[in-house]
Specification:
The protein has 752 residues and is of the alpha/beta class. 43% of the residues lie in helices and 15% in strands. The chain has 28 helices and 23 strands. Strands 9, 10, 11, 14, 15, 16, 17 and 18 form an eight-stranded mixed beta sheet that branches. Strands 3-2-6-7-1-8 form a six-stranded parallel beta sheet, with helices on both faces. Helix 5 packs across helix 6 and helix 22 packs across helix 25. The protein is globular. The structure holds a DNA duplex (15 and 10 nucleotides).
Length: 752
DNA sequence: GGGGGCTATGGGGGG
DNA sequence: CATAGCCCCC
């Protein structure tokens, strides 16, 4: 008989049971630092050791980094078979499958992936086409409505029929979101483009509609499914998981790992409800709770436990450690954000000399990316190497996106967003007026931007400019058909004039841009030279189209530079899953952390608290918290109270007792120095109190009467027109220059 | 059609 | 404050 594999001896009892329960549904509730990744990887290794083929295992993560980490750890146990495990992010795995199956749902194999910028640009255009007021229809808000609809499996038709959603949109003064959504989906389809949510939604559609038995094919293929960070899945992801796992005679080999206390992505639709639903959907579920923390010393663990008790509604769980008591948590106060930065940098220097900590062992974590600046300033001044993650990613930089747009346009002639970006960059005399005319023709005759460009009749001069542009792109496209990604990219870089343009800019910024541009080209070269295994598949296709597919889902965090010794600066969200010997959590102030956006709803504060919980549990030995009494925010000096979270830490775990304010912080809105408050845009009408307002029936609103509106105040009805069942009143409100057009069936007006 | 400057607006997290 | 969209002027 074979001896038990040695990796099983590296596990505690609960971990080992979780690893060895291979069949049937399993839920692993894993506290921070409890060996979650170890359990996941050893479980996969154990599956392979038990004779399961690596490609029959599907492991879904939220970041590429987590997937890579997992694979490299599996590799240590089972060797290079690990490469063939289908491990990757939800988005990348589904994108890869869709690339093969897309025609079954009416998409081309070489579909484009629209990033957030593309999506917003498209929405901006749609809002314009529909003649909607872009002050009430904010692209960001509209996109987030669409995104959350998709994440909840609500297609445009269902959206248009949901009284609840329509009501919400009306309240937010954007009643026609449902129409924008419908148009947006059609335009994406027409462009052969998917946005991030579509990668999930259309994969769901593929399985659900089941053309050619494709669902059964993938159900059979993925015999074992694992989901990491389950607390951050949304409804759509859960639905996909169920489609893969639930079928007649299924062994339901599904293992999900998560921690409700670390759920920090509800803003993008994640719901802890999935954990509860999972328990209901799989009654034979086996639950394992990992509560022993191997990462942090006692004071840190105790503080984490204490803090999280302030949240209601959580799965009962208490992490513990048998590590030493360790250092107490240090709290640093600065009078200003600048002083906070300096004192944090001072503390880093002190830790480095006294405790011999390397840069890589240190992280500065903040709530918002904008906070990195001051820390960068002092680290630079002290000659400490650092690296900022997040913020504007490499692929979002203008010079990089421009080049990528050229590549996209050269591969997919229907990619309207790419074309609009490059048609006149570098300048070639095709201006806004021409572009508008092309867009209008495309809209009118339902053509792609590219086809409209070829069809439109304008002045001789303009037409020849357009022809020259089309000829150029056609040559790029031809090159892309035959040459590899690098040759094509170089051909495009030179042929488009981008190379020359960027090279010729001698300014500091220009040199930086040219460097980024070259870094992109180097990346293409690397792509064609290395046979990478991605998501369990060896990439042999070296075409530009494939390259584009591979980079579409990359972020800043994926860019590994591990030989360098640098201090890590990143948002707390980005730090999830990581650990550092010494962690600085900075900016612990009311309105910043917790964010002012969260202060109105208790459940949002709870999420901020979970975020704080995530932050402090990244630390192994040294945890330092900091705040500033004042800081520049949005162009103004603001005074914020210390964060309520500071008070939730047990006092005997804090070193600098007395720094924290004794009294409960005042949670009122930020105070402003002097009278720098920006004047309110337009006249802010007097708000009408709830009780004083009795809306009149629609029939009472007639021309000439004076009415009261909750937001706009008093006004005179000048005119009523519009369709019978959608009457529009033109009302002149006091103190508002332009008359408002108000739909009577929605608006609440009181006749005075 | 291009460029510069004004102003409104955001202001959070990310695949 | 930083940025982006928009408007106006050349």
């Amino acid at each position: 008989m074979e001896t038990a594999p040695s990796y099983l001896e590296e596990l505690n009892d609960v971990q080992r049971n979780a690893v060895m329960t291979l069949e049937g549904p399993v839920l692993v509730v894993a506290g921070p630092g409890s060996g979650k990744t170890r359990v996941l990887t050893y479980r996969i290794a154990h599956l392979i050791r038990s004779g399961v083929a690596p490609w029959e295992i599907l492991a879904l993560t939220f970041t590429n980094k987590a997937a890579r980490e997992m694979k490299s750890r599996i590799e240590k146990v089972v060797g290079n078979k690990a490469n063939y495990v289908m491990a990757g992010t939800f988005h990348s795995i589904f994108a890869r499958i869709l690339r093969r199956e897309a025609p079954k749902i009416g998409y081309p194999n070489d579909f484009t992936i629209y990033d957030t910028d593309d999506a917003k640009s498209l929405l901006r255009e749609i809002i314009k086409i529909k003649n909607l007021d872009n002050t009430s229809y904010k692209v960001g808000a509209v996109l987030s409505r669409i995104s959350s609809a998709k994440s909840n499996l609500i297609i445009p038709k269902a959206y248009a029929q949901s009284e609840e959603l329509l009501q919400q949109d009306r309240m937010n003064k954007m009643p026609y979101v449902y129409q924008i959504y419908d148009k947006y989906v059609k335009r994406c389809e027409k462009a052969g483009a998917m946005d991030f949510d579509d990668l999930l939604l259309l994969f769901f559609k593929l399985l659900y509609k089941n053309p050619d038995g494709v669902r059964q094919e993938y159900q059979q293929k993925f015999k074992y499914v694992l989901v990491d960070e389950f607390q951050d899945t949304n409804y759509l992801q859960y639905a996909i998981m169920k489609l893969l796992v639930d079928y007649h005679g299924s062994p339901q080999n599904i293992c999900v790992v998560g921690d409700d206390a670390q759920s920090i992505y509800s803003f993008r639709g994640a719901t802890i409800e999935n954990i509860l639903q999972f328990e209901r959907d799989y009654p034979t579920l086996k639950v394992f709770k990992l509560e022993q923390n191997y990462r942090s010393t006692h004071h840190i663990v105790q503080a984490a436990n204490e803090i999280i008790t302030n949240n209601k509604n959580q799965i009962k769980k208490k992490i513990w450690t048998d590590l030493i008591e360790g250092e107490r948590i240090k709290v640093i106060k600065g009078m200003t954000d600048g002083e906070e930065g300096r004192r944090v940098a001072d503390t880093i220097v002190e830790q480095k000399t006294r405790n011999h900590i390397k840069n890589t062992d240190i992280a500065i974590l903040y709530r918002t990316n904008a906070q990195s600046r001051v820390f960068e300033e002092y680290l630079r001044r002290y000659n400490l190497k650092y690296r900022v993650f997040g913020g504007l990613s490499f692929y979002q930089r203008k010079e990089v996106k421009d080049m990528i747009s050229y590549m996209r346009a050269s591969c997919n002639s229907k990619d309207d967003e790419a074309f609009k970006r490059i048609i006149n960059y570098p300048k070639r005399g095709i201006g806004k007026a021409t572009i508008d005319k092309i867009s209008a023709l495309a809209e009118e005759q339902d053509l792609s931007f590219w086809d409209a460009m070829g069809k439109i009749k304008l002045t001789t001069r303009t037409n020849s400019l357009l022809l020259a542009f089309r000829t150029m792109i056609a040559s790029f496209n031809k090159k892309a058909q035959t040459a590899d990604a690098y040759d094509t990219a170089m051909y495009i870089a030179k042929g488009s004039g981008l190379y020359k343009l960027l090279k010729g800019d001698p300014t500091i910024e220009g040199i930086g841009r040219f460097e980024n541009f070259n870094a992109l080209l180097d990346g293409v070269k690397e792509f064609i030279e290395n046979d990478e295994v991605q998501n369990g598949v060896i990439e042999t296709d070296k075409s530009l189209g494939t390259y584009l597919q591979n980079i579409a889902l990359l972020t800043d965090l994926d860019d590994e530079k591990d030989d360098d010794d640098y201090i890590t600066l990143m948002s707390i969200h980005a730090a999830k899953g990581l650990e550092f010997k010494s962690v600085f959590v900075v900016g612990l102030e009311e309105n910043l952390f917790p964010s002012y956006m969260s202060l109105t709803l208790p459940e949002n504060i709870d999420e901020e608290r979970r975020l704080f919980y995530v932050a402090i549990t990244r630390a192994e030995r040294y945890l330092t918290l900091s705040y500033a009494n004042s800081r520049y925010q949005y162009g103004q000096m603001r005074f914020n109270d210390p964060s309520r979270f500071l008070e939730e830490i047990p006092q005997d775990s804090i070193e600098s007792y007395g720094v924290v304010m004794k009294k409960k912080p005042d949670f009122s809105s930020p105070k402003l120095i002097g009278n720098f408050k920006r004047p309110q845009a337009r006249n802010m009408p007097n708000k009408i109190a709830e009780g004083d307002f009795n809306p009149s029936p629609q029939s009472a609103i007639k021309e000439g009467v004076t009415v009261l509106h909750r937001k706009f105040g008093k006004g005179k009805v000048e005119m009523i027109d519009g369709h019978q069942n959608n009457l529009l009143a033109t009302i002149n409100f006091e103190g508002i220059d332009t008359p408002k057009r108000i739909a009577l069936k929605y608006a609440k007006l009181q006749v005075l």
